[in-house]
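ok new one. same drill as before - structure tokens go in, u give me an amino acid for every spot. 386 of them this time. try not to just spam alanines like last time pls lmao
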């Protein structure tokens, strides 16, 4: 299903001066076509819906400011429903029929990896919004990503555990591509942080009760904390069951639950959960001296005004992807795919909602651990966890 193809010329009611692109008055040239495939509906809609809304909002804003390189942007977006095969079909359509200049999308790791061979063969810049490290490792010539990786999440959590004198933990994870990848990355990097994993439980896609796994964890001698590697509805069920079973240890989640939807689904059970996430979730609580504050506050306020709903880090991934692409086109001075790719790869000092991006030929994400903030949920809201 096609979500939307936008070519808008009407300006929003208000538009911050900082968004002015300096491209001059847009001419009657052909628009720059930005393709997208996102999980706008289906089980991963909590990812794709804010991503779609963010792209629509900023394409409108950019066009209202004169476009890019004197040309309007046209967003051509398809709803993959989180299905990898649909994602592949839509990516093929974007490349061969719609003839887009670049692609942003892949709300999930499965969708993204299904599309990677197509964009590599076609030679088209592709910015993924998926979390797993496999998206960019090994480096793929035409593939970039904006979210922090699952490996980074493991490392940020393990650093926090070290600071809290926690060294023996239990893992629980779901069946999704992100879940499996993060579990594997946590197992891989745990020795580096002197973390010993005493229990390693899993749950299925259709499971609605994880009390059996959590009871086993609760009864495992020596466990000091529990980490749930996953996203979607699974972590909310785990969180509720965690409290029901009365597991007495600190509980960590991944950045895959970094939206108010997780808190709503978990109810009061989410209070006390610790997780690594982007500064966007605590935008208004950052000190004024924080160099990221203006970017995240401006995006948060613009999103809330336009869509009358809470911002999420997932929409922020789309914000970063679009602006990285715009920045690369401006620096390249063209929409030539190879030159835009090169400009993306040489991005330095780009301040996004995820953090400061410094890419290189060996790093097509460009974030380090400082881009993550450790948060804790208190009274149904996000708080800085340090």
């Amino acid at each position: 299903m096609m979500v939307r193809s936008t070519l808008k010329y009407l300006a929003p009611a208000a538009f911050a001066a900082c968004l002015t692109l300096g491209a001059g008055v847009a001419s009657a040239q052909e628009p720059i076509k930005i393709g997208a495939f996102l999980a706008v509906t289906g089980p991963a809609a909590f990812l794709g819906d804010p991503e779609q809304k963010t792209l629509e909002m900023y394409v409108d804003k950019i066009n209202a400011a004169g476009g890019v390189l004197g040309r309007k942007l046209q967003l051509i977006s398809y709803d993959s429903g989180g299905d990898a095969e649909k994602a592949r079909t839509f990516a093929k359509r974007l490349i061969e029929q719609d003839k887009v200049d670049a692609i942003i999308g892949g709300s999930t790791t499965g969708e993204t990896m299904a599309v990677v061979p197509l964009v590599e063969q076609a030679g088209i810049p592709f910015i993924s919004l998926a979390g797993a490290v496999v998206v960019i490792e090994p480096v793929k010539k035409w593939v970039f990503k904006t979210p922090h990786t699952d490996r980074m999440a493991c490392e940020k959590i393990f650093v926090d555990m070290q600071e809290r004198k926690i060294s023996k933990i239990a893992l629980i994870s779901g069946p999704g591509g992100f879940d499996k990848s993060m579990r594997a990355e946590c197992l891989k990097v745990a020795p580096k942080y002197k973390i010993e994993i005493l229990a390693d439980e899993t749950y299925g896609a259709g499971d609605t009760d994880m009390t059996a796994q959590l009871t086993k964890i609760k009864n495992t001698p020596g466990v000091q904390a529990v980490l749930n590697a996953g996203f979607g509805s699974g972590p909310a069920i785990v969180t509720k069951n965690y409290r029901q079973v009365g597991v007495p240890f600190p509980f960590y989640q991944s950045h895959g639950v970094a939206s108010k939807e997780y808190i709503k689904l978990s109810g009061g059970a989410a209070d006390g959960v610790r997780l690594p996430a982007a500064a966007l979730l605590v935008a208004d609580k950052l000190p004024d001296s924080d160099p990221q504050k203006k970017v995240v506050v401006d995006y948060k306020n613009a999103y809330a005004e336009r869509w009358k709903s809470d911002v999420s880090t997932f929409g922020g991934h789309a914000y970063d992807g679009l602006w990285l692409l715009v920045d690369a086109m401006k620096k390249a001075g063209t929409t030539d795919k190879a030159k835009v790719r090169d400009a993306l790869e040489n991005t330095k000092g780009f301040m996004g909602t995820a953090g400061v991006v410094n890419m290189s030929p060996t790093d097509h994400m460009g974030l380090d651990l400082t881009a993550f903030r450790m948060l804790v949920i208190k009274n149904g809201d996000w708080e800085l966890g340090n």
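The domain at 2-148+293-367 is CATH 3.40.50.2300 (Rossmann fold). and btw The chain has two domains: 2-148+293-367, 150-277.
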